[in-house]
Design goal:
heterotrimer; A mainly alpha (about 325); B alpha/beta (about 375); C mainly alpha (about 230); B: about 375 residues; alpha/beta; 5-stranded parallel beta sheet; 11 strands; globular; C: about 230 residues; 2 strands; Small ribosomal subunit protein mS35 mitochondrial conserved domain-containing protein (chain A); Ribosomal_mS35_mit (chain A); Ribosomal_mS35_mt (chain A); Ribosomal_uS7_dom (chain C)
């Protein structure tokens, strides 16, 4: 024990002497008489608190609203939410778990979202009543969709929104979309083929609809005129037969037509008669067409092989006879 | 832990395990050798029927030397013939199917064309060899091209044609083929009725007179290599005329036929310009032979991926390989698919290998190899190298 | 400044190894206490039968190599030979060469087999290429090797006993070198290797001669044998 204390003391001495002294005298100093040094010579004064001026807030208008008041005149047009005007105990927003959502006063969540308080059913009804005098009744004969499509095959779509920006002119308003069934044009096969080539990807094969969109002109009227012009031009152009169209070769065909290919002439040469007279030719021509149109796969090849065997009256592979001939 | 590792190392004594397996399987092998269910004694393809399916028959040595002396069998198969000391072919469905058709065809009608197709290494060429053997034994005049790729992809030489402007001759290859034709049909060519129909002027001085035999025509082609390509075209015409006249029955067998329609050949004209097959003189003769406008003959061709450039080997199906012109040239043809080995065929070929001592009788080797080779005969042959 | 220096020193002294619990096994992926995989179905079955499998079930085990398969044709010595043959990591090429040479061995032996007239002669011919390969390796193994020892400024070639592993390596390496000694344009490697394998399995050929030469030299240097100790 004695040894340890001596060791401790020795080690302390090794550390700086002044620090050692300070450590030893620490308990003898007077703390309560400590004074801060006032270098800039600032006068000491106590701060007076600034009094907050409270603005007088009126009680909300909802307190005075009658139960049977005319809401359409209280909230006549679109406007962001105001808690003192809407007499509904609405809550919106998220707080911590378990607590109810904040109420409507000073609630930014409610003010952010667009509201339809100006479009309540009675107000709409009233507005429709007012507009009724300017409308004509729906024709009674057009009661089904088929009839509508038959008599009015063209469908023109454009949008009529006010733009929420510095200008209320909606840039989308000038775009005109024209849509119609290709069937309603009554084109023949050749004209239809040409029409489809002209239209390109504007034709939807599944619904048989052609959609033409015009947005190149600044005004809707101009776009509308342009769309109608396009329709007219397409129709007449596809009806027209140009001299170079006669040059369409087999390679340009969309599908394989057996009667126009070498396969037909080959078969006719082999049997030395017209192809209609050859037995089993239907199966063969079908098989070749399928082979070409559907592409090459095991199934089409097999079918083709079987058709050729029946055509040339050869035995099938399953019928390998057990007796040598 | 070290103890465990040491034990493991000790356990893996390799010799022992191999020998144990060998001993276990030899008993089985002996049993099978007696039965020999994989072989058939019927060596004449005419008599083959569905009972012989998946069995092997051996081609007699003299037939083999006549038919395949100058090629016609795949290279690896040819080396195996030497090792196995015999030529054995498996009776398989595609060849049997075509032979069956050849038996029933009405030879007074226009020529029927067969197309053998299938994936690489499934045995198209060997099926063709089987059919050729049938034709040989039934006295057909055999027009057999062992591999068209040898002409289009690896020509021995080429020179501008003297008779046709803008055409290329492959004279050495043509002469070699004439020799092949001569050896294959040596027996039939002795027939004095096989005469040529017209006088042929080679040059001002050299002519082959009318009514000289086919052999003389062929001899001329072989001896005067300059005219070999032209000789083949004339020979093709003459064969057609003779067949139509009923003097001979012809089988045209061409391996790798689609090479005649594949535009990228390796035959180059002056200034390294690629010559398409339709500007090679040989093509004309063989396309002439595969037309349907003659009778008393049959055409069997194979279409193969290996005959076209590697970058275009995307499908093994005939329409793709023949292209539009090739398809229209052959249409209507009978497609015959050559598939890989079935379980039964695999079993019999493995038994054959064991009988020929080519593989050792390990246990469970058949299942393993069938799985690894996926039933493809060529892969199987490659896999059994070290077994 | 001194404080900063000392700080650096301590940092450098902190090696990550001293703190990590995993014992590194050189560059190997698996630590040294991982056991070798048991990839053969037969071995696994045998372990299951004897009940020893329970010892291994929870042992950390190395993953089996790509070349270690349970195929019936798998032979560890052959795969070792393939690895010795391999250059620049071209394993596929090496394997192909080995397979082809085994094929050639079969062809050589079968040719002899078909030339034989009697069944007795035929029975003598070994047709299994792997057994021939094993015999060739076994026959090529030397019993002694020469080790250079420096005594009094002079290097003496001292005969010393050889380990099993080294003997096998020498035998295989001699086989490979013998396969390479050929006409470069006319003979393929696998053909030459096959010939050497067949020769060595019959206790003749280049490899066996080389082994015998080594033995002779060891015999000649017998007098230096004591340099191994003193």
């Amino acid at each position: 024990m004695l040894n340890l204390t001596r060791n401790l003391e020795l080690s302390f001495r090794k550390i700086d002497k002044p620090l050692y002294k300070a450590y030893c005298n620490a308990s003898q100093g007077k703390h309560d008489e400590f004074k801060a040094l006032n270098i800039r010579n600032v006068k000491d004064h106590s701060h007076s608190k600034r009094s907050v001026k409270k603005t007088q807030v009126l009680p909300p208008r909802t307190n005075q609203m009658a139960v049977d008041q005319d809401w359409g005149s209280v909230w006549p047009g679109p406007r962001s939410f105001h808690p003192a005007t809407v007499p509904l105990p609405i809550r919106q927003g998220y707080t911590e778990k378990g607590a109810p959502p904040p109420d409507k006063y000073a609630n930014a969540e409610l003010m952010k979202i667009p509201n339809f308080l100006h479009l309540t059913p009675p107000v709409i009804k009233r507005q429709c009543e007012a507009l009724k005098q300017f409308c004509t009744p729906w024709p009674k004969a057009l009661d089904t969709m088929e009839k509508i499509n038959k008599h009015f095959p063209i469908e023109v779509t454009s949008s009529d929104y006010c733009y929420s920006g510095p200008s209320i002119r909606d840039p989308m308003a000038r775009i005109v979309t024209l849509r119609f069934n290709l069937k309603s044009l009554n084109l023949d096969d050749r004209a239809k083929d040409k029409f489809l080539r002209l239209v390109g990807d504007r034709y939807n094969k599944e619904t048989d609809l052609v959609t033409i969109v015009a947005d190149r002109c600044p005004l809707r009227k101009q776009n509308m005129d342009y769309v109608m012009y396009l329709l007219t031009a397409l129709y007449h152009e596809s009806k027209k037969i140009e001299p170079w169209e006669e040059l369409k070769s087999q390679a340009d065909m969309e599908y394989y037509d057996w009667t126009k290919h070498a396969s037909k002439t080959n078969v006719e040469d082999i049997f030395k008669c017209k192809f209609e007279e050859i037995p089993g030719i239907d199966k063969f021509s079908d098989a070749v067409s399928e082979y070409m149109n559907e592409g090459e796969n095991e199934y089409t090849i097999k079918k083709y092989g079987e058709a050729v065997r029946t055509l040339l009256q050869l035995p099938f592979s399953k019928e390998i006879t057990n007796k040598p001939l | 832990m070290l103890n465990v590792t040491a034990k493991l190392l000790l356990r893996s004594t390799f010799h022992k395990s191999i020998q144990i397996r060998l001993v276990a399987a030899t008993a089985e092998a002996h049993h099978e050798q007696i039965l020999q269910s994989f072989r058939t004694p019927v060596t004449n393809p005419t008599e083959h029927n569905s009972d012989h399916l998946a069995r092997l028959y051996s081609i007699p040595k003299e037939d083999k030397t006549v038919l395949f002396q100058h090629g016609g069998l795949p290279k690896i198969f040819a080396t195996h013939i030497k090792t196995f000391n015999e030529t054995c072919l498996m009776v398989r469905e595609p060849a049997l199917d075509i032979i069956n058709c050849l038996k029933t065809i009405d030879y007074n009608k226009p020529v029927v064309r067969f197309v053998l197709y299938g994936q690489k290494g499934t045995g198209k060429s060997l099926s063709l060899a089987h059919i050729i053997h049938y034709a040989y034994l039934n006295d057909y005049l055999i027009v057999h091209v062992p591999w068209v790729g040898n002409w289009m992809r690896r020509p021995k030489d080429n020179s501008n044609s003297e008779t046709k402007q803008g055409f290329m001759d492959l004279n050495i290859d043509a002469a070699a083929w004439l020799l092949h034709f001569k050896t294959q049909n040596a027996k039939l060519l002795k027939n004095p009725d096989l005469k040529i129909s017209r006088e042929i002027h080679w040059t001002k001085r050299e002519t082959t007179p009318k009514d000289s035999t086919l052999t003389e025509l062929i001899e001329h082609g072989i001896n005067r290599i300059r005219f070999a390509s032209n000789c083949i075209n004339i020979l093709a015409e003459e064969i057609k005329l003779l067949s139509c006249a009923g003097l001979c029955k012809t089988l045209v067998a061409i391996d790798g036929f689609n090479a005649f329609f594949y535009p990228k050949t390796r035959v180059f004209a002056d200034r390294r310009e690629i010559v398409p097959p339709n500007r090679i003189t040989l093509t004309e003769g063989f396309l002439n032979l595969t037309k349907f406008d003659w009778k008393n003959a049959a055409v069997v061709v194979t279409v193969d991926e290996l005959v076209i450039a590697a970058e275009d080997q995307t499908s093994h199906l005939p329409r793709y390989l023949l292209g539009k012109t090739g398809f229209e040239h052959l249409d209507p043809f009978i497609p015959v698919e050559v598939t890989g080995f079935s379980k039964k065929e695999h079993q019999s070929i493995m038994d054959y290998f064991r009988e020929r001592k080519w593989i050792q009788p390990y246990q469970g080797i058949d299942e393993e190899l069938y799985f690894l080779s996926n039933g493809n005969p060529f892969y199987l042959l490659d896999l059994v190298k070290s077994y | 400044m001194a404080g900063i220096n000392s700080l650096f020193k301590t940092k450098i002294l902190l090696k990550p190894n001293t703190f990590s619990a995993i014992v590194q096994n050189g560059m190997a992926i698996f630590p040294s206490y991982y056991i070798e995989p048991i990839y053969k179905k037969e071995d696994q079955e045998a372990l299951k039968k004897s009940g020893e499998i329970s010892e291994y079930v929870h042992m950390p085990t190395k993953a089996a190599l790509n070349s270690q398969t349970c195929s019936v044709s798998y032979d560890p010595i052959l795969s070792l030979f393939t690895n010795y043959l391999m250059r620049k990591g071209q394993k596929e090429l090496a394997r192909n060469l080995v397979e082809r040479s085994l094929e050639q061995v079969k062809r050589i032996q079968l040719e002899r087999y078909h030339k034989c007239n009697s069944d007795e002669e035929r029975a003598k011919i070994e047709l299994n290429p792997k057994i021939i390969f094993h015999r060739a390796v076994e026959n090529g193994k030397p019993l002694l090797q020469l080790m250079p020892v420096k005594r009094g400024g002079v290097k003496y070639q001292v005969p010393v006993p050889i380990s099993e592993y080294k003997a096998r390596f020498l035998s295989m390496n001699w086989l490979i070198e013998a396969g390479r000694e050929k006409d470069r344009t006319k003979v393929r490697f696998w053909t030459q290797l096959a010939r050497e394998l067949v020769d060595a399995s019959n206790n003749t050929g280049k490899v066996v001669r080389r082994k015998q030469e080594l033995h002779k030299q060891c015999e000649a240097n017998k007098a230096y044998a004591h340099y191994r100790w003193s």
